[in-house]
From TrEMBL:
CDD domains: NAT_SF (cd04301). It holds the Pfam family Acetyltransf_1. InterPro entries: Acyl_CoA_acyltransferase, GNAT_dom, NAT_camello-type. Residues 76-214 form the N-acetyltransferase domain. The lineage of its organism: Eukaryota, Fungi, Fungi incertae sedis, Zoopagomycota, Entomophthoromycotina. Keywords: Acyltransferase, Transferase. GO terms for molecular function: N-acetyltransferase activity. This is Acyl-CoA N-acyltransferase.
Length: 214
């Protein structure tokens, strides 16, 4: 994996701006940062990004989120969060079992990465970049039920897409289902376009393939 400098962002639901840019345009944010004298001594391990959730009307930081890369301490959450949403809508498939039971062998060792969004010490969501046959795929994306409606999918999308760009892939694809209306809308918002409609020969729940070209 290419060396990564930790990034800091301001997040207003779906709008994400680098913190320095946001602070330069919003004096209150710069003053808050200086007053708090932020330091990163409390960062979780493997942290690649910090997202400050801001209310620009109230001129306040309302939350702080961290995005971290794979650690075995989050293995249980990776499996449980993904199984929860899949079982609620579909049948669990063989590929799910392989990736969720053995992510080290079937995602990480093949060149991919797994990201976790943390609120405090709790895993709020996760996403994976899965590499196979020279192609990068975004998959295993989910936000825990208790964190739905807060825009938490957006930093996960941003980190997965940024990873694929840094690793030099010309594009990133994803396989999903048309019935997942909100998910499809999210992907379109991040620039993904439909490249195939119809049943997939290997994945029962997939009936749409989308791609983002860099």
């Amino acid at each position: 994996m290419v060396g990564v400098e930790m990034k800091t962002y301001a997040m207003m639901r779906s709008q994400i701006v680098e913190w320095e840019t946001f602070a330069a345009e919003n004096a209150w944010a710069k003053e808050t940062a200086e007053r708090e004298a932020w330091n990163y001594s409390d960062l979780p391990g493997n942290c690649v990004a910090v997202y400050y959730v801001v209310d620009n009307v109230a001129k306040a930081i309302t939350n702080k989120l961290h995005v971290v890369t794979w650690s075995s301490e989050y293995k249980r959450e990776f499996k449980e969060l993904n199984l929860l949403w899949v079982k609620g809508l579909f049948e669990v498939e063989e590929s799910d079992v392989k990736q969720l039971d053995y992510p080290e062998e079937n995602i990480l060792k093949t060149g991919g990465q797994i990201f976790f969004l943390l609120e405090g010490k709790k895993v709020a969501g996760t996403v994976a970049t899965i590499v196979h046959d020279g192609q990068c795929e975004l998959g295993k994306m989910t936000v825990a039920d208790e964190y739905q409606g807060r825009g938490y999918a957006h930093p996960l999308m941003q980190e997965a897409i940024s990873w694929a760009k840094r690793e030099g892939y010309p594009n990133i694809i994803l396989l999903t289902a048309l019935k997942l209306i909100k998910a499809v809308a999210l992907y379109k918002k991040h620039g993904f376009e439909t490249i195939h409609l119809g049943k997939h020969p290997h994945y029962e729940r997939c009936d749409i393939i989308m791609q983002l070209t860099f």
